[in-house]
Fold this sequence. Notes:
2 domains, alpha/beta, 46% helix, binds S-adenosylmethionine, globular
Amino acid sequence: MDLEDYLKREGxxxxxxxxxxxxxxxxPSAQERFCSLSDSYVxxxxxxxISAFYDLIAEMGLYNALLSRFYASIxxxxxxxxxxxxxxxxxxxxxxNGVKTIFYAQHNPDKTFIGVDISxxxxxxAHSRKQRYGLRNVHFIQQDMTTLCFARQFDTIIAxxxxxxxxxxxxxxxxxxxxEPQFVxxxxxxxxxxxxxxxxxxxxxxxxxxxxxxxxxxxxxxAGLRVEDVLLVDYDRAQQSTxxxxxxxxx
Length: 251
Ligand SMILES: C[S@@+](CC[C@H](N)C(=O)[O-])C[C@H]1O[C@@H](n2cnc3c(N)ncnc32)[C@H](O)[C@@H]1O
């Protein structure tokens, strides 16, 4: 199945509506809970708040609505990732409801995929999607990427729009950056799980693009890794021009 058909089948379209607007019409009774969890997550992004927020999104069946907001970017980044997945084993950290992991696994039946996420409820959706597509080469496990613990290494590690989750969000969202030690810590965790010849594929969408482009290379370097390639993906989101940065990182 090609990407366009797959996304359509999964209900992911170019729908730019804010989640809160969808919730106010389709889940009015959950609106207050959503706003409160969203506020807590943005204010203090500790693992408990992150998982509670994404659990609720999955519980309300809104994970794909969240992805729809990035449709224009997904259309470009997923084919790029598909092309750059190499080796026998692939780890997708922050895989959410597994919609992307499943697509990659379908197209690489000879490779084994493991998707990890902190949100238990999102992983339930990932499991049922795996059953629905009858895949045997993908497994989903609940883990916190900051304390990732596998007694093995992977040929490709995907970290698609997840590394920012545990950063100071004021920096990521509003450009108030300083030195961000957590990026280095969490890249080091990924590095420890990467085979010597392997690649880490990272997508990030920081607000202050120019500043971030210079700064992130330094953080990658500090984790003992190297930026091999950078792809800039420009698109409009909610009538604002946005850029996703897609890094290919090696040891
Ligand atoms: C913005 S979504 C991106 C999902 C998916 N990678 C994609 O590109 O569509 C971020 C995901 O990362 C997960 N996440 C956030 N912090 C995490 C952590 N510390 N460990 C594992 N997963 C985490 C969230 O639960 C959520 O499912």
